[in-house]
Design goal:
This protein has five helices and two strands, in the order αααβαβα. With about 140 residues, the chain is mainly α. The longest helix has 27 residues.
Length: about 140
């Protein structure tokens, strides 16, 4: 998404910052699969098309809408997984786990469902390789 919007690398923090000043007022598609798999291809295509074709599109609103929709998908599937497995612990990982909105919503999910949510230190959220390396050191 960040690359499509001409945001410099790394784009995640820039999307996060823009989303904070935007309004999630753009409806984006959610792919619902019967299992717990994810597909973000529909939302990615929608973002590309909106960014290229819609005049007067506020990047802040697109970022907020994207962040909101993706987080909803992550939360929905996590709830399903918790219901199916009866587990009481969730660990977030990868660069996306640095996103403040995702962290906020998962913290709320933990409170709502009485589930422990584990977040990596932000310094380890650059990519999975950094997190794997830190786990090896521990």
């Amino acid at each position: 998404m960040a690359r499509v919007m001409d945001l410099t690398y790394p784009g995640g923090p820039k999307v996060d910052k823009l989303a904070k000043s935007g309004t999630p007022n753009i409806e984006l598609p959610k792919t619902h699969l019967e299992n717990l798999d994810f597909s973000f291809s529909g939302i990615k295509t929608a973002v590309i098309n909106l960014n290229h074709n819609k005049k007067n599109l506020k990047k802040e609103d697109l970022c907020a809408s994207f962040e909101n929709t993706v987080t909803d998908m992550l939360i929905e599937n996590t709830k399903k997984a918790l219901e199916q497995t009866h587990l009481k612990k969730v660990a977030l990982a990868g660069g996306v786990s640095a996103n403040s909105y995702i962290r906020e919503k998962f913290a709320q999910l933990g409170k709502d469902l009485n589930v422990d949510i584990y977040f990596p230190d932000l310094s380890l959220c650059t990519d999975n390789a950094a997190m794997i390396a830190s786990a090896r050191v521990l």
